[in-house]
Structures are given as structure tokens and as C-alpha cells.
Amino acid sequence: MGIVNVTPDSFADGGRHADPAAAIAHARALRADGADIVDVGGESTRPGAPPVAERDELARVLPVVAALAADGAIVSVDTMKPGVMRAAIAAGATMVNDVRALTAPGALEAVADSGVALCLMHMRGAPRTMQDAPEYADVVAEVRAFLVARAAACEAAGIARERILLDPGFGFGKSLGHNLALLHALPSLAAAGYPVLAGLSRKSMLGALTGRPVGERMVASVAAALAAVARGAAIVRVHDVRETVDALKVWAAVDAGRAPA
Length: 261
Ligand code: 9MG
Known about the structure:
Largest sheet: 6 strands, parallel
Radius of gyration: 17 Å
Distance between the termini: 23 Å
Structural class: alpha/beta
Helix content: 40-55%
Strand content: 5-15%
Strand order of the largest sheet: 1-2-3-4-5-6
Bound molecules: 9-methylguanine
Order of helices and strands: EHEHEHEHEHEHHEHHEH
């Protein structure tokens, strides 16, 4: 999954694809590099990010979603707002990626009324405050229980199990230790029976491990993506699609022990 931020303030590429034409060109390049899905977002979720009005978010994402869907791309919309979910689905998005796991009023219904896929992510708190000393008694058990409960709520609302993915939400209200515990324990989340999506690309946990600023975390991001796939992730959400695809090809061939067909 390639990341397309149509925002002026995302942490890793803020402003570079802020207008729809630049975002469309970027998404097309990510597809050419091997992205199977493009995730289009119009509101930054980086720690401390201010909220964006629905009207502004719609103006950012809808032209991008529509153009990519017309290309035949699998388009995911990264949003917490039910109104944006509905409009993006009408414009051709076939997946909703919600960092609030459909907890906003009306979000469950917006997705249940459609046939699209859904990523439920765990976040402790809200983007503005989530990194203020997050605490857990058992981060792995708590994140897993939250996600499984949200998936059950979605299924009860009529969303078929096959449409649901789970994501532990690396960096969303978690310390470095929490993030590493979750990555190490990814197989236990995968054992819940839903495909797992992992987003580690360029995140501050990689800066903490390597000492590198955000613009120099590509190698660490590729290593993290490989680690996530090796531990059961079905989808990795990344900025550096070409490098990640290359690394995954090598890893998959070694894992299979034979040349690709
Ligand atoms: C929007 N967004 C930013 N980071 C993310 C992550 O790790 N997972 C998902 N699903 N979305 C994310």
C-alpha cells in the first residue's frame, strides 16, 4: 500500500503532494513502482496535527480518489469522517482506512452501507495528544482486544468478516517499547483471523532506533516492512514503494526456497 498524503502537514512528506494534481501524479508513480493499493488521505494524523474541516478534506481527496479509480487503481481512503467515507466510496474508493476504527458517530453505518474493505486501526487518544506518555498494563493484549472487539462490532453491523483488516497502529499513542512489543507479537494479532496491515514507514520509532531524521529513514522503513511481513502482516503501508517491493521480492523468494514462477 503506497501512501498518498494530500496534505500540507504530514510528517514525512508534508506539502509535497498537497494539491490534487501533484497527488495524482505521485500515486501513479507509486503504482508504477509496484503498489497494489494507494491510500489517499487529506488530514494528517501525525502527533500534534490539528483537525481539518470536512469541506477541506473532501476538496483534497475526492479529485484524487476519482482520478485513480478511473485509472483502475485499488483506492483506499484514509479518513476518520463518515461524510468523507461516503463521498470517497461514491467516487470509487474500495477501501476505508480509519485510524479511529469506525468509532466516530455514523462511521460504522457509512461502511456497512457499502461493500468496501475496511482497515480498523488502534489509536490511544487523539492525534493532538496521543504521544503524551501513553501507558498500558499489557499493550499487546489491550490492542488485540480492542481490535477484535471493533471487528465484532463491525460484523454485528453487517460488515462481512472478509472485508475487515486489523492494524495495531504503530506510533499512535505508543512508546518505542510499546511499538516493538507489538511488532514482535504481530503473529498473535494475525492469529485473530483477520489480515493484518502494518504502517511503520519513516515513523519516529525508526528514528529512535537509528538516530536518523525523517528524511533518512528509507532503509530502516524497508527493514521494518520486511520484519512486519515476516511476522504475518498481509499489507504494509509505505512511502518507499519501489525499495519495499524489491526487498519483499527477495524475502519472498528466500522464504519459498525457489525462484518465482
Ligand atoms: C493514516 N495512517 C498513518 N499511519 C498509519 C498506520 O500505521 N496504519 C494505518 N492503517 N493508517 C495509518
